[in-house]
Amino acid sequence: MRHRRRLISLIIASLGLVLPFAPPARANTGTGCAKVGQVNKKFDTVCSRVGKKLVWVKVPGKSSSANCPSQVHFTKNFIEPAHVQVVTPIGGQTAFGGSIAVRSYVHPPSSLYGQQLPLYAPTDMTLYQASYYLPNGAPADYKPEYSLFFDAGCSISVQFYHVKGVVGKVASVVPTTASSSSAGQNVTKTKIAAGEQFGWYQGEAGRSVAFDFRVEDSANKNQFINQARFEASPLASGELFAKCPYDYFIEPLKSMWLGKLGSSSGVVVPGTPCGKPTQGGNGTVNGMWFLPNAKVNSLTFDGVPFGDPVVGPAGPYMRSEEH
Predict the structure, then answer these.
(1) CA of 261: how far to CAs of 83, 84, 169, 258, in Å?
(2) Phi/psi of residue 239, each to 5°?
(3) End-to-end Cα, the chain, rounded Å
(4) According to the model, what pLDDT value does residue 246 have?
(5) Which among 114, 123, 119 is positioned nearest to 161, based on CA atoms?
(6) Is residue 49 a contact partner of residue 237, using CB atoms and an 8 Å limit?
(7) Measured at the alpha carbon of residue 256, what is the angle toward residues 161 and 239, in degrees to the nearest 5?
(8) Taking a C-beta distance cutoff of 8 angstroms, is the pair 215, 88 a contact?
(9) How many Cα atoms within 13 Å fall on the side-chain side of residue 138?
(10) I need a surface site. Which of 84, 96, 129, 151 has the fewest CB within 10 A?
(11) Which of 68-100 are b and which e, b meaning 16 or more Cβ less than 10 Å from the residue's Cβ?
């Protein structure tokens, strides 16, 4: 039978005809998937959370991966350096606890609170998702904020949160009605050039004192000691793909931004590493523990099932100290 099919194929090919039983594969974009971060190399798609659903989306920049440099380079400042007092490392515990910081917090000095500080594209990139949201528990007079998701090509996504205003082309495509979620909503894809202003940040004492700068590489996963906890979680895309955003800048910008690393209290600490989400050491209890009531130096499982629909395996955690 195999030889017969091959003979038929050769005859049809010689006649310049197209085989009817070999249709081209169709992209799976938009169809359902099971696990955030799962990659389908056949279609260059990655499983991502869009709203409340998990669907296949095109890996940013994958369509031109053959022409990708070894690393995307940021050639322009994303904010005037003089407008920033300190930036924080990734990989620590978030300000309110309960999760790994997968983004760097950018703190302007308090002397600039109330001023609109322009934000710029660090490289050529395309806006593909955005949200206009009011954080949960915000006061009645709190100004809604934007989360902006850009495709920088070659699997690199650049994200900003707590943006207070948008300008230019970006302003024409983002949502205009505030929601309660900072999760990105699909928008008309909009290209902006390196150095082009897309928005502004405005600090406010006791409320919004920093904005978030986040970079993810969906083609290169971070590796944890207990990788299964992250691979199985629909909430762990940041932990799996987050990278130090300042490593992507060209010199001397890279050294300048790394030199601003320090504490969230606004103090620059020379020599502070940019950090990474994948902390922990083999053979120790210094790892990421996903239990709703985890305690330092306590490895007691408290009965919440792995994959709890509310907490999830990437829910609250404590970073235990080694005994």
Answers:
(1) 14, 11, 32, 6
(2) -60, -35
(3) 67
(4) 98
(5) 119
(6) yes
(7) 40
(8) no
(9) 18
(10) 96
(11) eeeebebebbbbeeebbbbbbbbbbeeeeeebb
Q: Omega before 252 cis (within 30°)?
A: yes
Please give the DSSP secondary-structure letter assigned to residue 5: H
Tokens representing 226 are 């207990």
Tokens of 230: 């992250």
Q: How far is CA 97 from CA 76, 88, 233, 284, in A?
A: 32, 15, 19, 22
pTM of the model: 0.72
CA gap 147, 130 in Å, rounded:
6
pLDDT score recorded for residue 163: 97
156 pairs with which residues across the strands? 153, 217
Q: Residue 124, Cβ neighbours under 10 Å: how many?
A: 17
Query: pLDDT tens-digit profile of 284-320?
Result: 544 454 444 444 444 433 333 334 444 333 333 333 3
**217: which residues sit within 8 A by CB, 6+ positions away?**
155, 156, 157, 241, 243
pLDDT tens track for 141-189: 889 999 999 999 999 999 999 999 999 999 999 999 998 888 888 999 9
CB contact at 8 A, 48 and 55: yes
Q: Are 257 and 246 in contact (CB under 8 A)?
A: yes
